[in-house]
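Backbone-to-sequence.
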């Protein structure tokens, strides 16, 4: 997941399944302005591998909030 923030902001990126259950927190800290990347290792919060399928990830940075769909193929 690639993203850009225009100024230093607290960034939170979380992954959810289609039932709306949180699967994993990928990012939850302060980031400087610029381009950033994060990779999800397809594990849930307890360290178990998740199945292939459709997932939703949310990005929150300052006042910005977005939700996008992604497909995990193993």
């Amino acid at each position: 997941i690639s993203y850009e923030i225009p100024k230093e902001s607290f960034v939170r990126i979380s992954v959810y399944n289609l039932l709306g259950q949180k699967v994993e927190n990928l990012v939850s800290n302060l980031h400087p302005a610029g381009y950033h990347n994060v990779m999800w290792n397809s594990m849930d919060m307890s360290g178990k591998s998740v199945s292939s399928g459709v997932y939703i990830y949310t990005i929150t940075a300052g006042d910005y909030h977005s939700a996008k769909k992604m497909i995990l193929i193993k």
